[in-house]
């Protein structure tokens, strides 16, 4: 009893909910925040949970009524069957390579360009920025055919022979085209919020534009960079239509394609689909968990808050 | 025929290979686009393995989700790209592909083609050339829940549309609807099947849409079913999976579904050979024809490995392959003789085989140009009509005039 | 080490002219202090020298080289910003190290200098904190520390001690003095603290409205202002100005008629003022040069009534109404016993008198006083 | 430092803007110049889907898509499809963007608080966005399944409803399902962008506002909002642009059905260009879409465009 | 209007105790000034009163009500922040209006007050600018303006004049004084400027290291510090401390042996110091209470050598080495003629002497001097 209380007490203290050390309104707000966040997380995770329990139900039990929301006879057979037939490791690898390369390119170029747009009033600054944002308003679906033709013909540059069709490079190029404008724009807006006096101080400290940018401004732009990186990563991670058209084999196909393959034409085998979906979701979830501290610290650190 | 070495000099496909002529040497690999995952096509998978073993030509299978296969192919061909050699798809794509010069005639020879029933041969032949080798059949089979029938005192499946209605009254219970259709979320397919049963067709020989009269029979039938509550609510959204699921859940007394549902039902909990039964489709005003949705293999006109691809198309559609496919997967064979073979007879109940064979021989279909858009014009009118939200006559007339205009537009009329 | 030269420097922001044609020579190794009212352009001038703003017009040279087109990082300066501009994500130590690292200073030198500066600024215990965890004065000391660890050609300091208490400020002032004596780095310094200006400066530049009013040695400027603005700006409480008409008294000597009272002009100024006979002249006298004549009425005293007694610790400031109606201030001994309402006689220290032209504000006695000093 | 090195440094510094902006502009030019021209060019041609022959038709593609051919009795002479699909798009984008924005803003504000364990909350909240859209679409199709879906399960098994709802057989319900799925998938995006933006709000201004007597709402309006504006602009713009042309969810969940009740511009464009093989009309739709998007973005710029300084 | 009471107030940041048990009564309508070295906890105390920080311990009441759990916006205070904290996206006018709008002030009152305050602060011309377009001093005035337009229960001002030049500061000081006389709003004020502290305060609280060292009327605290810290902190240059051994001279009177020299203890302190006979005692004497005895050696003078002559305008500060080796400072008339190296005799003003216990730092004469003042 007493230990229970003390662990409860510890929990309360750890969550910053003890009225001893905190303002009562702060505690009240925190409580409300925890409650709301808890509710929200519960609601948005419920579908994932439902897919998960569907995936560990025996195939036949999936269609039981009433629906059981707690698995009674969990089984991994759906997973085993799927894994036997699917090179998921390859799809995951492709997704990872494509998404991370795209992210690196977009974040690098987007950050430096966004910074210049934010700080320097060079000729055409506004026009260029507007055209960058405007560029991304073209709906990509309208461009499937031209893109396919670019990628399936030997590239103009580099003296390479052979086309880029069904390579990760094709996807990376396509995705950077889509993501870069946004990266530039997000970073520009972010840098607008970083006080210019810090640039000046860096200059006084003997930094050239490059050095000041790299050593002072970049560390402070972490939240913006993190947001941009996540955006670029997830967009590439999730893209489907172009992956479908530009790739045709495991050497370049990504997870969304893998998932879509579970959809047979004429009936949906929900148990296996759910298992496949979980497997396809897993890299993302693991990725999220693994990088959570980077995501979180990226999104908060460097903050210019004074 | 298991002897694949007859023309098996596996010449390497030289880099300077030219397209178009049949005199090229045999490539040692081809790219095959399969609709959906081979996981769900074990029959095809087994046949591909046999092909590779016997010819030494390796087949690179590219699984493309069904919904996107046509897009992928269209994109590739609009670029005159040689990425794909052969693919597997339904017969109703043929007309558009052929009209665009995207497919290569298969030159399968009469001996091969004569294995298939006449109606099917016609379907894959355009301007006298064969563009698709039929691989396996897809058509509706009337399945019913025998236990439920017995409980409601119905001893025999309905033989005609009228019986569907009359027996439906008996079969209806609180939890169970008497009747549903496999094609139900593709209302066009449903419509076509019943149109054929009513003796109608979509187009006449000079490409004019002519379905309004026959269509009205279909609409009348449906209105009866709907107003008398003999089909479930929301019928328009019940895809094959949905109808099948509902059937297995015991909430449908009978269903017109493509055959694998039979196999699924036999495996399901609480089902078995005693409970599941099949019958021939109920006869409409004209016939018991079902809708033909057969899949076959075609070869790309832009392929650089046409010889190997054609060989593949032929191999995959031999009697043996057809039998294998049916054995492994339960896909209905498109060659009547397969149903009589001993292996198959021992594997499936004879009543089922009898109905399947009947369907194969009586199925109907049409190939017509601008199929997706024609279907779209149809669907947008008949879906609300089927649901009772629109006057059927008016819906059909609108659809017909829209299609007429489309055909004028593209120069067919 | 370098001397800095400003030539007709102008800086305009949209519709504000912040710096309006400044020319100034800042000799090598000198300590030049800018003073002037709020918004007169001190910070802007510093930023122009630093290369953080582009001059609208004019020329800046550092060490004989025109640097208008040089980037700030190429000018080799260290600067203390008025608003600190500390890097919020770096600790105090990192803030201080950064400039040195940028200049490829060896690690041991960095450590040494940072430690030294931290000690000098009494922030040794704060080295690992982030700026947000510091008090205002501590942040300011870090900003100062960041500059003094460097060894630049020019130091620019913008009110670096404004947030420090008197005691610390005296210490820091002494340290800055020592530092300047040791390193002799040319320093340009902005302050609003007169004591700082007087004690630190080799030369002091008084600015107003974007222009330099007077430049010179601090005591010279203080005791010999060129015009009423400078006279009034320096000194706290500021100089009293008493306007009157110049006339001749019965003895034919010049005297100022200031209403019901008169003021005798000292003989040495008679020549300069002659020309203003019968004209308006302003007499300037600093509060600390006024004393209470408690021995009864004598010559050259002015009767007045005490209005306010303001003890300020080391001195007491009196607000007095002259019998002529003008209000003036006097700074007297803190142990004075006068009280509100007392009638007193004021004696103006005759060595410290100044006379100005009320129209132009120019000092009438500037030249002669300057000479006097020189000969003295 | 050697003078050589110094002059290099100087040169590099002078080239800062060209070097930072140049490569990106070149890179992007690929998608501005080429595809835009391609799009405009294609939109004035008509390709016979049967014979693949191209024909210059001027603005006919636009006329056909936007104005009813007969023009009889339709609203403003607009094509009924155009009107209804525009309305669907408006409903779909409007509802899902506004709801997910409100939700995302709320959650971002909560997550910006000094809470223990907020790291885990952040991760948990982002996950829906990490899952492939296709998977999410299927998942929601399963959730809304008329027989075995969790939603029907909960509603009927808890006794709230006596019979199950066939969500995908009703246009309105299908749209609702799409909107819910869309909100589920894209709210994390809003959260992330706004969360990053919130980092730039100087803490001391909250103090100043509080002393000025500003309560929660006033602090949000007067301190948070001005600093968040650029991020809101980014979040809304990208969100709207993505949604107007988002295809994945619609295609996986309803394919525009039942009938055409959930057909939106994106699926219409896809259907026209890819399924019907009518690239010219598809391109024309693309141009319309581009123009509409541009207008929306311009409007957003007007409302949120100013930066806080 | 409200009085403010602080009871054992403690504020700890992670490992720093910024405020360490402060108890203070701030009477209604009073003007209380906090002074103390940089980092001693002044700002933190203000923030605690404002409700921007939560007290780790102790109690704060405003107008008889304990407000520990009241939020800042419920406390009805106006505050000038040390770092201004202006809203960068609002114009000067909007910055000033905001607080009034929050308190539902009628539009015409807002307009009137803002116009008035702007005039008073001489920022009328800047009303439409954004803070980033202002000079440091201008920003500070806006921050001040934002507070004074309000009509709160309590004003909190954290070094509101630190970035202004002397002249403007004197004006602002006068304006604040007038304002306080008109409105009588309880005001808590932090400054490092002694003149400000002395002239504005009803009571002054000297802080060190998170604690209050002494509270009282400014002149009282200045002339009668409770301990060496207070004595040394107030006054600039600060009080000289001379340590010696207390002994009896030939006449049996107490005297301080300060090496080669001695210092006679005035009779009135004999009783208090008696107990320290043969012990160490520290003599405190402010620089301005030291004068140069130029009439040759007499009683109670101390010979010294001038080391540094520092003219500061209104006074000149001498740094002197006593013959005993100790260094002290004296503030003398600016027209002094002494020069570096001169030998002089110093006279300590005997009314201004202080004595301290060198161990505890406590004043030994605090009690008796307080009484003296009272009776005087
Ligand atoms: N957020 C914080 N975290 C940790 N320490 C802090 C924080 N804020 C203030 N301190 C410390 O608390 C002490 C008191 O700070 P405070 O700001 O009250 O000083 P102050 O008296 O206002 O000084 P100054 O005159 O320099 O402004 C200082 O040592 C400071 O470093
Ligand atoms: N970025 C700017 N845009 C417009 N006006 C500006 C800008 N910066 C400064 N000013 C104006 O230029 C003038 C000079 O400003 P500056 O900062 O140099 O003054 P200062 O002498 O440093 O004053 P203070 O002592 O108050 O800091 C002021 O009137 C100020 O308002
Ligand atoms: Mg300034
Ligand atoms: Mg402070």
UniProtKB/TrEMBL annotation, chain A:
Q: Which Pfam families match?
A: BPD_transp_1
**Predominant location:** membrane
Q: How does it sit in the membrane?
A: Multi-pass membrane protein
Gene Ontology CC, one term: plasma membrane
Q: Which InterPro entries match?
A: BP-dep_ABC_trans_perm (IPR050901), MetI-like (IPR000515), MetI-like_sf (IPR035906)
Spell out the subcellular localization from the entry: Cell membrane
Q: Which UniProt keywords apply?
A: Cell membrane, Membrane, Transmembrane, Transmembrane helix, Transport
Q: Which GO terms describe its biological process?
A: transmembrane transport
Q: Which residues cross the membrane?
A: 31-53, 96-117, 129-149, 169-187, 225-246, 270-291
Signal peptide region: none
Where does the record place the ABC transmembrane type-1 domain? 92-291
Which PANTHER family does this UniProt record tie to the protein?
A: INNER MEMBRANE ABC TRANSPORTER PERMEASE PROTEIN YCJP (PTHR32243:SF18), MALTOSE TRANSPORT SYSTEM PERMEASE-RELATED (PTHR32243)
The UniProt entry's sequence similarity note says: Belongs to the binding-protein-dependent transport system permease family.
Annotated protein name in UniProt = ABC transporter permease
- What is the taxonomic lineage of the source species? Archaea, Methanobacteriati, Methanobacteriota, Stenosarchaea group, Halobacteria
From TrEMBL, chains C, E:
Kindly state which reaction or reactions the protein catalyses.
D-xylose(out) + ATP + H2O = D-xylose(in) + ADP + phosphate + H(+); L-arabinose(out) + ATP + H2O = L-arabinose(in) + ADP + phosphate + H(+)
Give the UniProt entry's GO cellular component terms.
ATP-binding cassette (ABC) transporter complex, substrate-binding subunit-containing
**Where found, per UniProt?**
Cell membrane
Gene Ontology terms describing biological process: carbohydrate transport
Give the NCBIfam families listed for this entry: PRK11650.1
What's the source species for this entry? Haloarcula pellucida
Name the keywords, alphabetized. ATP-binding, Nucleotide-binding, Transport
InterPro entries, per database record? AAA+_ATPase, ABC_transporter-like_ATP-bd, ABC_transporter-like_CS, ABC_transpr_MalK-like, ABC_transpr_MalK/UgpC-like, Mo/tungstate-bd_C_term_dom, NA-bd_OB-fold, P-loop_NTPase
Q: Which CDD domains match?
A: ABC_MalK_N (cd03301)
Gene3D superfamilies listed in its UniProt record: 2.40.50.100, Nucleic acid-binding proteins, P-loop containing nucleotide triphosphate hydrolases
This chain's protein is named ABC-type D-xylose/L-arabinose transporter
Its EC number is 7.5.2.13
Q: How does it assemble?
A: The complex is composed of two ATP-binding proteins (XacJ and XacK), two transmembrane proteins (XacH and XacI) and a solute-binding protein (XacG).
UniProtKB/TrEMBL annotation, chain D:
Organism superkingdom: Archaea
Q: What is its main location?
A: membrane
Q: Which residues cross the membrane?
A: 15-37, 90-111, 123-143, 175-198, 283-304
Q: Which InterPro entries does UniProt cross-reference here?
A: ABC_transporter_permease, MetI-like, MetI-like_sf
Matching Pfam families: BPD_transp_1
Extract the PROSITE patterns matched here: ABC_TM1 (PS50928)
Sorted alphabetically, which keywords does the UniProt record give? Cell membrane, Membrane, Transmembrane, Transmembrane helix, Transport
CDD domains in the record, alphabetically? Answer: TM_PBP2
Q: What is the similarity comment for this entry?
A: Belongs to the binding-protein-dependent transport system permease family.
Q: What is this protein called?
A: Sugar ABC transporter permease
Q: Which organism is it from?
A: Haloarcula pellucida
């Amino acid at each position: 009893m007493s230990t229970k209380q003390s662990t409860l007490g510890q929990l309360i203290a750890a969550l910053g909910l003890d009225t001893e050390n905190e303002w009562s309104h702060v505690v009240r707000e925190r409580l409300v925040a925890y409650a709301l966040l808890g509710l929200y997380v519960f609601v948005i995770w419920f579908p994932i949970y439902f897919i998960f329990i569907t995936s560990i139900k025996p195939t036949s039990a999936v269609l039981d009524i009433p629906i059981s929301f707690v698995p009674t006879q969990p089984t991994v057979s759906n997973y085993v069957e799927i894994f036997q037939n699917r090179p998921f490791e390859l799809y995951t690898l492709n997704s990872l390579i494509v998404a991370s390369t795209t992210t690196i390119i977009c974040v690098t170029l987007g950050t430096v360009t966004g910074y210049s747009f934010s700080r320097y009033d060079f000729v055409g600054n506004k026009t260029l920025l507007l055209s960058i944002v405007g560029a991304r308003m073209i709906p990509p679906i309208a461009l499937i055919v031209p893109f396919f033709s670019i990628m399936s013909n030997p590239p103009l540059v580099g003296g390479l022979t052979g086309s880029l069709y069904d390579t990760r490079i094709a996807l990376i190029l396509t995705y950077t085209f889509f993501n870069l404008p946004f990266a530039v724009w997000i970073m520009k807006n972010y840098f607008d919020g970083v006080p210019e006096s810090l640039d000046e101080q860096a200059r006084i400290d003997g930094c050239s534009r490059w050095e000041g940018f790299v050593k002072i401004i970049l560390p402070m732009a972490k939240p913006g960079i993190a947001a941009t990186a996540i955006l670029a990563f997830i967009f590439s991670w999730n893209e489907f239509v172009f992956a479908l058209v530009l790739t045709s084999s495991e050497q370049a196909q990504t997870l969304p394609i893998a998932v879509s393959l579970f959809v047979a034409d004429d009936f949906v085998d929900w148990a296996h689909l759910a298992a496949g979906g979980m497997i396809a979701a897993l890299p993302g979830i693991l990725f999220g968990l693994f990088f959570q501290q980077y995501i979180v610290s990226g999104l908060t650190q460097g903050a210019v808050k004074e | 025929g298991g002897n694949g070495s007859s023309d098996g000099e596996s010449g390497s496909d030289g880099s300077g290979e030219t397209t178009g002529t049949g005199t090229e040497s045999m490539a040692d690999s081809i790219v095959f686009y399969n609709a959906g995952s081979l996981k769900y096509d074990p029959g095809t998978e087994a046949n591909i393995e046999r092909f590779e073993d016997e010819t030494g030509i390796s087949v690179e299978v590219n699984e493309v989700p069904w919904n996107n296969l046509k897009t992928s192919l269209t994109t590739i061909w609009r670029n005159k790209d040689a990425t794909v050699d052969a693919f597997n798809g339904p017969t109703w794509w043929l007309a558009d592909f052929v009209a665009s010069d995207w497919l290569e005639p298969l030159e399968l020879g009469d001996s091969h083609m004569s294995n298939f029933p006449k109606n099917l041969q016609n379907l894959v032949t355009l301007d006298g050339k064969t563009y698709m080798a039929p691989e396996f059949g897809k058509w509706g089979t009337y399945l019913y829940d025998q236990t439920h029938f017995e409980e409601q005192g119905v001893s025999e499946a309905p033989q005609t549309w009228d019986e569907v209605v009359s027996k439906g009254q008996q079969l209806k219970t609180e939890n169970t609807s008497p009747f549903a259709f496999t094609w139900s979320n593709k209302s066009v397919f449903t419509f076509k099947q019943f149109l054929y049963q009513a003796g109608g067709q979509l187009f006449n020989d000079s490409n004019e849409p002519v379905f309004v009269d026959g269509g009205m029979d279909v609409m009348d039938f449906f209105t009866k079913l709907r107003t008398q509550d003999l089909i479930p609510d929301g019928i328009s959204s019940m895809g094959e999976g949905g109808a099948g699921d509902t059937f297995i859940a015991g909430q449908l007394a009978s269903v017109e579904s493509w055959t694998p549902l039979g196999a699924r039902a036999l495996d399901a909990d609480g089902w078995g050979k005693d409970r599941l039964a099949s019958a021939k489709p109920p006869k409409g005003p004209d016939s018991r024809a079902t809708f033909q949705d057969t899949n076959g293999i075609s070869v790309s006109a832009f392929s650089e490995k046409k010889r190997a691809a054609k060989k593949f198309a032929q191999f995959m559609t031999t009697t043996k392959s057809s039998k294998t496919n049916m054995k492994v997967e339960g896909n209905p064979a498109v060659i009547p003789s397969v149903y009589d073979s001993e292996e198959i007879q021992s594997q499936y109940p004879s009543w089922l085989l009898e109905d399947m064979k009947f369907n194969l021989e009586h199925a109907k279909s049409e190939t017509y140009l601008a199929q997706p858009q024609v279907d779209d014009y149809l669907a947008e009118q008949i879906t609300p009509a089927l649901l009772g939200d629109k006057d059927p006559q008016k819906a059909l007339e609108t659809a017909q005039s829209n299609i007429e205009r489309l055909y004028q537009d593209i120069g067919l009329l | 080490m370098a001397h800095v030269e400003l030539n007709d420097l102008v800086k305009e922001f949209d519709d504000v002219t912040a710096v309006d044609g400044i020319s100034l020579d800042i000799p090598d190794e000198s300590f030049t202090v800018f003073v002037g009212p709020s918004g007169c352009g001190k910070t802007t001038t510093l930023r122009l020298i630093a290369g953080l703003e582009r001059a609208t017009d004019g020329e800046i040279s550092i060490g004989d080289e025109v640097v208008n087109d040089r980037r700030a990082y190429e000018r080799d300066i260290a600067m203390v910003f008025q608003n600190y501009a500390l890097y919020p994500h770096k600790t105090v130590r990192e803030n201080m190290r950064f400039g040195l690292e940028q200049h490829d200073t060896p690690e041991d030198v960095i450590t040494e200098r940072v430690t030294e500066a931290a000690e000098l600024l009494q922030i040794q215990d704060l080295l690992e904190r982030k700026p947000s965890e510091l008090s205002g004065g501590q942040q300011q000391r870090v900003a100062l520390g960041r500059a003094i660890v460097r060894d630049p050609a020019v130091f620019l300091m913008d009110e670096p001690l404004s947030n420090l208490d008197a005691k610390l400020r005296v210490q820091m002032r002494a340290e800055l003095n020592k530092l300047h004596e040791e390193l002799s780095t040319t320093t340009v310094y902005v302050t609003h603290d007169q004591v700082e200006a007087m004690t630190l400066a080799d030369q002091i530049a008084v600015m107003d409205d974007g222009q330099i009013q007077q430049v010179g040695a601090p005591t010279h400027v203080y005791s010999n202002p060129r015009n009423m603005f400078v006279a009034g700006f320096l000194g706290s409480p500021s100089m009293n100005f008493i306007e009157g008409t110049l006339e001749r008294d019965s003895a034919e000597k010049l005297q100022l008629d200031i209403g019901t009272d008169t003021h005798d002009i000292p003989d040495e100024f008679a020549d300069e003022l002659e020309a203003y006979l019968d004209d308006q002249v302003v007499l300037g006298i600093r509060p600390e040069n006024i004393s209470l004549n408690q021995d009864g009425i004598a010559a050259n005293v002015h009767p007045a009534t005490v209005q306010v007694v303001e003890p300020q610790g080391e001195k007491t400031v009196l607000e007095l109404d002259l019998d002529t109606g003008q209000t003036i201030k006097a700074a007297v001994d803190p142990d004075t016993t006068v009280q509100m309402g007392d009638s007193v006689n004021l004696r103006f220290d005759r060595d410290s008198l100044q006379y100005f032209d009320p129209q132009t504000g120019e000092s009438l006695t500037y030249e002669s006083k300057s000479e006097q000093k020189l000969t003295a | 430092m050697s003078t050589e090195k110094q002059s290099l440094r100087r040169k590099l510094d002078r080239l800062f803007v060209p070097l930072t902006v140049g490569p990106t502009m070149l890179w992007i030019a690929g998608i501005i110049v080429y595809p835009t021209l391609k799009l405009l060019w294609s939109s004035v041609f008509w390709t016979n889907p049967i014979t693949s022959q191209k024909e210059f038709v001027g603005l006919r593609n636009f006329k056909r898509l936007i104005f009813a051919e007969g023009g009889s009795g339709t609203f403003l002479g607009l094509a009924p499809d155009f009107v209804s699909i525009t309305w669907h798009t408006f409903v779909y984008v409007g509802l899902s963007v506004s709801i997910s924005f409100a939700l995302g803003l709320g959650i971002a504000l909560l997550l910006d608080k000094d809470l223990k364990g907020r790291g885990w909350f952040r991760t948990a909240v982002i996950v829906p966005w990490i899952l492939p859209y296709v998977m999410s679409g299927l998942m929601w199709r399963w959730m809304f399944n008329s027989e075995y879906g969790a939603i029907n399960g909960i509603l009927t098994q808890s006794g709230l409803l006596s019979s199950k709802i066939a969500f995908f057989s009703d246009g309105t319900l299908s749209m609702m399902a799409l909107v819910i799925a869309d909100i589920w998938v894209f709210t994390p995006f809003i959260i992330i962008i706004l969360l990053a933006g919130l980092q730039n709000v100087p803490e001391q201004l909250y103090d100043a506002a509080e002393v000025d007597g500003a309560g929660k709402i006033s602090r949000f309006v007067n301190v948070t909002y001005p600093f968040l504006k650029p991020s809101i602009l980014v979040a809304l713009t990208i969100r709207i642009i993505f949604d107007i042309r988002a295809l994945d969810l619609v295609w996986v969940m309803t394919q525009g059905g039942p009938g055409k009740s959930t057909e939106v511009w994106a699926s219409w464009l896809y259907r026209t260009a890819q399924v019907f093989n009518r690239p010219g009309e598809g391109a024309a739709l693309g141009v319309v879409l581009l123009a509409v998007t541009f207008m929306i973005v311009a409007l957003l710029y007007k409302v949120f465009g100013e930066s806080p300084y």
